[in-house]
Design brief:
The structure holds 2 protein chains of 2 kinds. By secondary structure, chain A is α/β, with parallel strands linked by helices. Chain A folds into 2 domains: 18-340, ABC transporter type 1, transmembrane domain (ABC transporter transmembrane region fold, Up-down Bundle), CATH 1.20.1560.10; 361-599, P-loop containing nucleotide triphosphate hydrolases (Rossmann fold, 3-Layer(aba) Sandwich). Chain A is built from 19 helices and 10 strands. Chain A has helices spanning 16-34, 38-74, 79-127, 130-135, 138-180, 182-229, 231-236, 240-293, 298-311, 313-340, 400-407, 430-436, 451-456, 464-473, 477-481, 500-514, 530-543, 579-584, 588-599, and strands at 361-371, 374-384, 389-393, 415-420, 423-424, 437-440, 518-522, 548-552, 564-569, 572-577. In chain A, the strands form 2 sheets. A 6-stranded mixed sheet of chain A has the order 6-7-8-3-9-10, sandwiched between helices. A 4-stranded antiparallel sheet of chain A has the order 2-1-4-5. In chain A, α2 (38-74) runs parallel beside α5 (138-180), α2 (38-74) packs antiparallel against α9 and α5 packs antiparallel against α6. By secondary structure, chain B is an alpha/beta fold. Chain B has 2 domains: 2-330, ABC transporter transmembrane region fold (Up-down Bundle), CATH 1.20.1560.10; 352-592, P-loop containing nucleotide triphosphate hydrolases (Rossmann fold), CATH 3.40.50. Chain B has 20 helices and 13 strands. Chain B has helices at residues 2-10, 17-22, 25-28, 32-66, 73-118, 121-126, 129-171, 173-220, 222-227, 231-283, 289-330, 395-402, 425-431, 446-450, 459-468, 494-507, 524-540, 550-553, 573-579, 581-587, and strands spanning 352-359, 372-379, 384-389, 410-415, 418-419, 432-435, 444-445, 484-485, 512-516, 542-546, 558-563, 566-571, 620-621. Classes of the chains: A alpha/beta, B alpha/beta. Chains A and B meet through α2, α3, α4, α5 and α6 of A and α4, α5, α6, α7 and α8 of B.
């Protein structure tokens, strides 16, 4: 099994080889994000090293003050004490200011990395083909861009700071302690042995529990989102109680996983304190014996005690870092998997410009299958001259939408080629392709924003007049004017609630304003009432006069405006001709048409 | 966007932080005893930590001064025992507090979920699911952490600081006063920090929610973005939002850096002053060396509590924001609720009557007429009524009123003579089943999805429902009827989803069936088959069907014509064709124009207008 891209994302049982592969791609991604920030990172490191050193110096000055300042004071010499106080004050201020600066510096770095990563994921998911989106559910992409990025943010914001600061702090204290009193230093080193075992135990145990919390929380999220998006159906079919029970179970799983994770901390944290306090007692004993014997000053003893107590403070934070590191690493693995996915409909490397398209579409020896071995469109060749309006009819699953998706290059043919004005779509510059060919589907999706924004999506630079003209052309102007703020009504807000049919009209206007040479309508009028459909069709007749069009419709009234009808069955075009010729014939279309006529009454 | 709207509403009148968080108390109440015990344990741990320096003092002033090494063992033994006790108390604190914290979170999460399930559709129309999700997950996470960590530490550390200052003063009152005076700026800065930080924190949480909404839209609307090649356009939009968030986050970091500065600076200055003062006091014999050692050891113990105030404050304000956001949803008044003493319908017949029904959205401007503007309609038991009208005439709204997805603004709807508001929602919705135009499937097997309204149905009933909806394809899915569909399962086409949704409505075996344009995504052949099968079901069931096409209308016994929220005509299809011009306008297709009243089903007299100009000869080679 491969682990390239998003494959194997839900697995936990990677082999060593696979783990290495995944880690390598995470690191490559991380490297590419960090590289442009090297300068800032070095500055940040310098700042944190200096500030930590300044902080750590404190107790040594206290020791100096007591051991040298006090005897000097007794002889009315203020100098040593003044030096100790001044030095303490100086390092304290430097330390505090630098830590504050460091906080802002790390925030800038982490935000720079995050925004870059956000943009990359966003752009890449936009670039990935529909094939990917159809198998990789929307929920998972949303999770990648929200909760996974949150995990990385947490690591960058506090985790790394904790590690760097904590690690430096411990290292500097150890150095200072050795400098002050090497015997105490040795005691401290001895304490590292139980510390190592405790931390190692915590790492291994938390790794396991931690994964469980992540899967448990993902389940809670998926169930939650699904309920909220399907709330009407939930209510209409009284699913509330069953849902509450199901959700309650998931919440309990999540709670339990969390409890276990926190439980580990409940052992780890007092364990650290215990090691720290025992070490303190030993340092006290070893130091005290020497003070009594006169080989160590009291001030130095105090400083060793202060250092020993501070030494263990960051250990807990470093352990926390391990937690956020685990979560961020898992997140980065998944994100790098998405970024590794190659679009199956890639942008051309040497794109051919087509400034002015005429709109001749040709399928050349095309065969298409979504999955290997399951041919959806068997081998065929089809020529659609520029300006022709084609009606594509046939029962559900006959391959009509697939044919349309090949023209709009949502998919590429398995073999053969689809061309526009003789240029293979795979080589056509994306900007020209999208300007020339536009597809309107049955699901009319509206983005948050105003009605005008939604129409102008077809042509971002459109003026208000153009927007209104497009709305008029499809008969949407009247109802839009009737909205609380007309064209400026927010479609998600008060009074902006539009019906399914109205959504479809807006998406039609969107296609009109885009003004493509080739227009594909896939069931685009299904939710419209008959008068609206008629208006749309009248609009279409003018619009389509000098355009190529492929219209898929269940209602055969569309055929009225078509120059040519293609009847499809099981992926094959079984009839092809002018509407009149086919109706008067004896084929499938003439039967369908008769049945449809009967249903009109 | 939504988030901005909400935050501006909220900030007008703010209760105190503590009061805002304490609104969570009802959820936390069962957990409080253990939290108090945890505080007790933490307090003991803190006191033990404060006691250690006192032992040091007696050690320094006693055995060490005298150089008597045999006396050292006792104090060291005491320090060791105190150290072990501190560790045990910390273990106790964790053990007491951890479990209740997770229970608070789980209780609140279930509470939020249940409230959201009960809130009317009207509420969900206004709230993007991204904003709801962030409340259910990250906000509640924050609240849990605060209860099991923040609250305990906040109380204990504050007490520790107070006790510690008393201890310091008892060692030497002058040094104690210096310490106390120096902590004043911290308290002041803490208050200033609240104002600065909580506003930024709220903004960042809302902006993150908005960004999540944009991400969600870019994924759900991917087909549109691709079809128009607007990926770059969407990216720009996303980028500017992400930049906004970045700005806010850096502002937040600056606020945190500010409080860090003070929390580090003030103790450092205090230490320096105390060092100077302490040594001077020692030189004039006002304090023993042991006292000096104890003073600094105690002050070091206090450093963590003082520094912790910074993140405890920001954590508290984050929690407050989280609690505010949580209660924004919990405070939302549910308008569609069960009556206090619900009536029941013993023997439902399915007589559905609309009496002068009006409906408007509560927030729609006054100059707008009611969306449903006085409807009177009677559906006899077993009768099928088609609802016909232009897009936006209120058809879908009328169907939603019948199951109380929305409540009527005035007037009433009765089922078998009982006002539907006097029935429990549970009962009402078991009598009335709906199929929507945009069919929702849940992450569950086909079987569970179809039997959603009546899980106890037999396999035979399941088969029947699938047959009626022409959903044969479901049996050919990889795992047949056990194939998982929905968000986490196989993706089905619009037509397939619609047929399963129809099967679901039929399988519920309701007394009244409400279908909102249920066949729009079906092709002509399938539609005809479904209609033929539906006829059998409709013979015995009261039904209200929103229809766009004549073929669907043909299923109905009578047709109601809806025009701008009013019913302008009711009657049989042929009657309305004859009597109502608007009806002919709405229902007759392109080529039927000109057919006068008394239209009879006969082959078309006029041929279909065909545009033949400019047709080049189709040149097609089909097959291989």
């Amino acid at each position: 099994m491969s682990v390239t891209g998003v494959e194997g994302e839900e697995r936990h049982d990677f082999t060593k080889e696979e783990s290495r592969q995944i880690r390598a791609r995470s690191l490559t991604l991380l490297g590419s994000l960090v590289r442009p920030l090297w300068g800032r990172i070095i500055l940040t490191i310098v700042v944190v090293v200096v500030s930590t050193a300044a902080q750590v110096a404190g107790p040594a000055f206290i020791a100096f003050g007591i051991d040298n300042g006090l005897p000097a004071m007794l002889e009315q010499d203020w100098m040593p004490l003044g030096v100790a106080v001044g030095a303490f004050l100086f390092t304290g201020i430097i330390g505090a200011v630098l830590i504050a600066w460091y906080t802002v510096l790390t925030a800038r770095i982490s935000q720079a990395i995050l925004i870059e990563l956000r943009k990359r994921v966003f752009l890449h998911t936009q670039r990935l083909s529909l094939e990917f989106h159809e198998s990789y559910t929307s929920g998972r992409i949303i999770a990648r861009q929200t909760s996974d990025l949150d995990a990385i943010r947490e690591l960058l914001d506090s985790g790394i700071s904790q590690l760097v600061q904590g690690g430096l702090y411990m290292a500097f204290i150890a150095i200072a302690l050795f400098g002050l009193d090497w015997v105490s230093g040795l005691v401290l080193f001895g304490s590292l042995i139980p510390l190592w075992f405790l931390t190692r135990w915590f790492q291994l145990a938390s790794q396991k529990v931690f994964r469980q919390t992540r899967t448990a929380s993902a389940r809670v999220i998926v169930h939650f989102v699904e309920t909220m998006t399907g709330i009407r159906a939930v209510k209409a079919f009284r699913k509330e109680k069953r849902n509450a029970k199901e959700f309650g179970g998931l919440v309990e799983d999540y709670r339990y996983a969390n409890e276990r994770a926190i439980n580990l901390f409940g052992i780890f944290d007092p364990g650290l304190v215990l090691i720290g306090n025992v070490t303190l007692a030993v340092v006290l004993l070893v130091g005290g014996l020497r003070v009594a014997g006169g080989s160590l000053a009291i001030g130095a003893l105090l400083a060793t005690l202060l250092y020993t107590r501070s030494f263990f403070a960051p250990a807990q934070e470093i352990a926390m870092f391990y937690n956020s590191y685990q979560s961020a690493a898992a997140a980065l693995e998944k994100i790098s998997g998405v970024l590794e996915e190659q679009p199956s409909v890639p942008d051309p490397t040497g794109p051919i410009d087509l400034w002015k398209a005429k709109g001749a579409v040709r399928f050349d020896d095309v065969e298409f299958s979504y999955k290997e071995g399951r041919v959806v469109l068997p081998h065929f060749t089809l020529d659609i001259p520029a300006g022709q309006t084609i009606a594509l009819v046939g029962s559900t699953g006959a391959g009509k939408s697939t044919l349309a998706k090949l023209i709009s290059r949502f998919y590429d043919p398995t073999s053969g080629s689809v061309t526009l004005d003789g240029v293979d779509l795979r080589q056509l510059h994306p900007k020209d392709l999208r300007r020339a060919i536009v597809m309107v589907t049955q699901e009319a999706y509206l983005f948050s924003g105003t009605v005008a924004d939604n129409i102008a999506l077809g042509k971002p630079e459109a003026t208000r007049e153009e927007v209104i003209a497009a709305a008029r052309a499809v008969g949407a102007h009247e109802f839009i004017e009737g909205l609380p703020n007309g064209y400026d009504t927010d479609v998600n807000k008060r009074g902006g609630r539009v019906s399914a049919g109205q959504r479809q009209l807006i998406s039609f206007a969107r296609a009109f304003i885009a003004d493509p040479v080739v227009l594909i309508l896939d069931e685009a009028t299904a939710s419209l009432d008959i008068p609206s459909e008629r208006l749309v069709q009248e609009g279409l007749q003018t619009l389509l006069a000098d355009r190529t069009a492929v219209i898929i419709a269940h209602r055969l009234s569309t055929v009225a405006i078509a120059d040519r009808v293609l009847v499809m069955e099981h992926g094959r075009i079984i009839e092809d001709g002018t509407p009149a010729a086919l109706i008067s014939g004896t084929g499938k279309f003439s039967r369908m048409h008769a049945a449809w006529r009967d249903s009109l009454v | 966007m939504q988030g901005k709207l909400l935050s501006s509403d909220v900030h007008e009148k703010r209760p105190g932080t503590f009061a805002a968080i304490m609104r969570v108390y009802p959820f936390a109440k069962p957990a409080m005893p253990r939290i108090y015990l945890g505080m007790g344990a933490a307090m003991l741990a803190a006191l033990v930590a404060l006691a250690i320096p006192q032992v040091l003092r007696s050690l320094v002033d006693g055995p060490l001064k005298d150089g008597d090494s045999s006396e050292i063992w006792w104090p060291v033994g005491i320090v060791l025992i105190l150290g072990v006790i501190e560790a045990i108390m910390i273990w106790f604190r964790r053990w007491f507090v951890l479990q209740p914290g997770t229970h608070i979170e789980a209780r609140m999460r279930n509470g939020l979920y249940n409230q959201l399930q009960e809130l009317p559709v009207n509420f969900h129309d206004r709230w993007p699911s991204g904003q709801l999700l962030s409340r259910a997950i990250s906000d509640l996470n924050l609240i849990r952490r605060w209860f099991s960590f923040g609250l305990v530490l906040f109380v204990v550390n504050t007490i520790t600081i107070v006790v510690g200052i008393v201890v310091l003063a008892s060692i030497n009152w002058i040094l104690g006063v210096i310490f106390l005076v120096c902590s004043v700026p911290l308290v002041i800065y803490g208050y200033l920090f609240e104002n600065k930080y909580s506003v930024v924190a709220r903004r960042s949480q809302d902006q993150a929610g908005d960004l999540a909404t944009t991400v969600e839209e870019s994924v759900h609307g991917i087909r549109v973005l691709k079809a128009f090649g607007r990926g770059a356009h969407a990216l720009r939009n996303f980028e500017s939002q992400a930049e906004l968030l970045r700005g806010t986050e850096i502002e937040k970091a600056k606020a945190i850096a500010g409080i860090w500065l003070w929390l580090l600076l003030v103790p450092d200055v205090t230490f320096a002053l105390c060092l100077g003062g302490g040594v001077w006091l020692a030189s004039v014999g006002q304090i023993t060396p042991g006292g000096l050692v104890a003073f600094f050891a105690t002050a070091t113990v206090l450093r963590f509590p003082v520094e912790s105030i910074g993140f405890l404050l920001s954590m508290t304000f984050d929690t407050r924001t989280a609690a505010d956001r949580f209660f924004e949803v919990m405070d939302e008044k549910n308008t569609i609720v069960d009556p206090e003493s619900p009536r029941t319908i013993e023997k439902p017949k399915g007589r559905l009557v609309f009496h002068d029904v009006h409906f408007r959205y509560a927030d729609s401007p006054e100059r707008f007429p009611d969306l449903v503007d006085g409807i009177d309609l009677e559906l006899e038991p077993g009768e099928t009524m088609a609802l016909v009208g232009l897009t936006g005439s209120g058809k879908s709204t009328v169907t939603a009123l019948a199951t109380r997805l929305y409540d009527v603004t005035s007037g009433s709807i009765t089922l078998d003579g009982v006002d539907i508001r006097e029935l429990s929602l549970e009962e009402l919705r078991s009598h009335v089943a709906m199929a929507f135009e945009d069919a929702t499937l849940f992450s569950a097997s086909v079987r569970d999805n179809v039997l959603l309204g009546r899980p106890e149905s037999s396999d035979a009933e399941l088969d029947e429902a699938l047959d009626i909806a022409q959903a044969d394809f479901a049996r050919e899915l990889p795992e047949g009827l056990d194939t998982k569909v929905g968000e986490e399962g196989m993706s089905l086409s619009g037509g397939q989803r619609q047929r399963l949704a129809l099967a679901r409505a039929v399988a519920a075996k309701p007394d009244v069936l409400v279908l909102d344009d249920p066949l729009s995504a079906l092709d002509v052949d399938t539609e005809a088959l479904v209609e033929a099968a539906l006829r059998r079901v409709l013979a015995s069931t009261t039904a209200l069907i929103v229809a766009h096409r004549p073929s669907t209308v043909m299923l109905a016994d009578r047709v109601a014509l809806l025009e701008k929220g009013r019913i302008t005509a009711v009657g049989r299809h042929s009657e309305l064709l004859a009597s109502s011009e608007h009806y002919r306008f709405v229902i007759s297709s392109l080529e039927d124009e000109g057919d006068g009243p008394g239209y009879t089903p006969s082959p078309p007299t006029t041929p279909i207008p065909i545009v033949t100009s400019g047709v080049s000869r189709p040149s097609t080679e089909v097959g291989s």
